[in-house]
Amino acid sequence: MTPNERISLRESLPSGVGEQEPHRTEQDASNLDQADSRLWESNRKRACVLAGSAILQLPIWGFAMNYGVFQEYYSSNWTLQGSHQVTGIIGTTSNGVMYLSMPFLFALFTRRWARRRQTAALCGAALTCISFLLSSFSTHVWHLVATQGVMAALGCALIYSPTTLSLGEWFNTSNRAVAYGVVLSCKNIVGSACPFLLRVLLDRYGFRITLRIWAAVAAGTSILAIFLIPTHPSSISSSTHRTRKIPWQFLKHQTFYIYSVAIILQSSGYGIPQTYLNTYAHEVTLLSQTSATLLLTLFNIPGIVASSFFGYLSDNTRFPLSATTVTSISAVSSALSAFLLWGLTSQGSMALLVLFSITFGFFAGGYSATWGGVINELEREAAQRNEAVDTGMLYGLLNGARGIGYVSGGLAGVPLLKAGSTSAVGSFGYGTTYGPLIIFTGLSSVFGGWGLLWKWKKLLHLV
Known about the structure:
Layout: H1 3-12, H2 23-65, H3 67-76, H4 88-110, H5 117-135, H6 141-170, H7 176-226, H8 233-240, H9 254-283, H10 289-315, H11 323-342, H12 350-365, H13 371-384, H14 391-422, H15 435-446, H16 451-462
Helix pairs in contact: 2-6, 2-7, 3-9, 4-6, 4-9, 4-14, 5-6, 5-7, 6-7, 6-14, 7-10, 9-10, 9-14, 9-15, 10-12, 10-13, 11-12, 11-15, 13-14
């Protein structure tokens, strides 16, 4: 049969004869299209969640991370009633109240009130803005403590807790630490950009107008970002049925307490430079206000890279490192920075203070990015014991431990500062009023990595 005859024969056959049935291929293609559509939609929502979480770092942490600018301004332009030394506890109290309230807020919004996360975050934004607005009318120092240190902090925690729960649910175990690291990097971008902005506003308008401007900025950014973060469908579906109890079995295991104690110790020293570095640079090393503000910016800039870097170390599969190893790298390095750089500064030695700000800001600033690895390790332990674990609640409790550390460090800072004014403990920075604070910062930082010693001890017992 010639080719032309074969073509004629094929054309004369009824439709479908001699061909494979197409319905299976079309169905497969339809399924693939639906899968691609679902994947694209899921990736779009993840991108929105990541973007919203990044934007929220400004209203949540912009004031707390840069309170040192206000502290230096208050000390130079005191117009309120009461002792200006009390203002030293506002920054650490703000951080402490935020972190201490997180375990309770995480518990509420993990299951029972999952559907109300966006509403709660909007209420937190309203409380934050009202608090800063009220703060601008302060006439006594305790007004600042109540509005800036407590009320605004509670509002920020109410924004942070439900939105961070959603972030942790949209990103699974394989990329959770990286997602946390990216968001924490944005937190450090806020800490790097805001000092000069706040300094300019304070110098031009005074603290009252500056606080009103900040209230407006917090309102605009928080409302926009909150609507970018939808609650994960799994939480909504679980909340429509009988509320499941939060699994608390991890509280029976030693590992959780090892990391919690390490976080408390590290955090108690981390807030000290944030609060006192500006005044130290201005009073002890006699730097200008601009140079002192620059130090706070340099303190936060390295955290942009450090948070993503330590998040990568925690999730990295090519050269896997345990959570204890990663936390120890951060803790020991930041302690050495405090002892060898901040402690050895003297009058006019801006170079050492700059080096301290960069190195301490990098290693200490990346410490909280290791928590993704800590949670992954606790998840693996729970799986080995065939136990359930709620990662959102676990993350909230780790933040609570950080809050205990901040409050402890803030309360210790005032008597340590008084002790330094009455007796010197050496030369250089150690011999100044801030000497005890420097020693406290270094010791608390190094103990933030004590989990590695516990792990070695455990391994020696097994041998």
